[in-house]
């Protein structure tokens, strides 16, 4: 079997090398895999690699005076690994902005207060008042439907077992597909818990 066909293996884009994906590097600019610095500097990858080394030269030029005063040996301020980590971090932040454009990645202390506003007593008071107004205006049937969809107990009109079953079926039919799915999952979970409790109880009695 060809290793490169295995989902766990990837090929270097610049040499005939197959490795586990976790053992390869990925260029944050072009998203191509490479196995070493030599491959990163390949002629096929000049567009990305030249940018890195250009940044290195500019950084050294800007800081040469300061480095000469502290050390007789000049060295890059950014290593290859640091540069790649920075590029990956910037790409991750960009992806996060595209996924959640409404959530800022960096917020000021004043903005942080706005995000924590749900902890304020005034905010909680407004939520309670709004909920009470909604509770007073909603009819009983709609209230029961919302409670059933949320998996909460409801108060049914007194009647025979058949009438009670009819009320439940009527409420269930009024749920939309998503609410029915959630209710079914909740009911199955409760049944499984009750069954396990009954089984454990039976085993304890039998062991005695």
Automatic annotation (TrEMBL):
Keyword Lyase: no
InterPro entries: Znf_HIT, ZNHIT2
Domain HIT-type: 12-48
Keyword Metal-binding among UniProt keywords: yes
UniProt-recorded Gene Ontology molecular function terms: zinc ion binding
PROSITE patterns attached to this UniProt entry: ZF_HIT (PS51083)
SUPFAM superfamilies for this protein: HIT/MYND zinc finger-like (SSF144232)
Highest taxon, organism lineage: Eukaryota
Keywords for this protein: Metal-binding, Zinc, Zinc-finger
Protein name: HIT-type domain-containing protein
Organism of origin: Meloidogyne incognita
């Amino acid at each position: 079997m060809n290793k490169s066909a295995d989902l766990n293996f990837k090929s270097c884009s610049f040499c005939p090398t197959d490795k586990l994906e976790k053992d390869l590097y990925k260029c944050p600019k072009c998203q191509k895999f490479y196995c070493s610095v030599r491959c990163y500097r390949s002629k096929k990858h000049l567009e990305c690699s030249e940018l890195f080394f250009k940044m290195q030269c500019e950084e050294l030029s800007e800081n040469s005076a300061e480095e000469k005063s502290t050390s007789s040996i000049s060295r890059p301020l950014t290593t290859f690994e640091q540069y790649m980590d920075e590029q990956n971090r910037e790409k991750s932040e960009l992806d996060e902005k595209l996924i959640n454009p409404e959530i800022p990645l960096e917020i000021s202390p004043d903005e942080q207060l706005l995000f924590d506003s749900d902890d304020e007593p005034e905010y909680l008071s407004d939520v309670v008042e709004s909920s009470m107004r909604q509770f007073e205006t909603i009819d009983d049937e709609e209230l029961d439907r919302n409670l059933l969809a949320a998996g909460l107990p409801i108060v049914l009109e007194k009647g025979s077992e058949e009438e009670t079953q009819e009320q439940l079926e009527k409420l269930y039919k009024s749920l939309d597909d998503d609410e029915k799915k959630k209710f079914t999952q909740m009911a199955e979970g409760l049944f499984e818990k009750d069954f396990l409790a009954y089984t454990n109880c039976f085993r304890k009695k039998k062991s005695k």
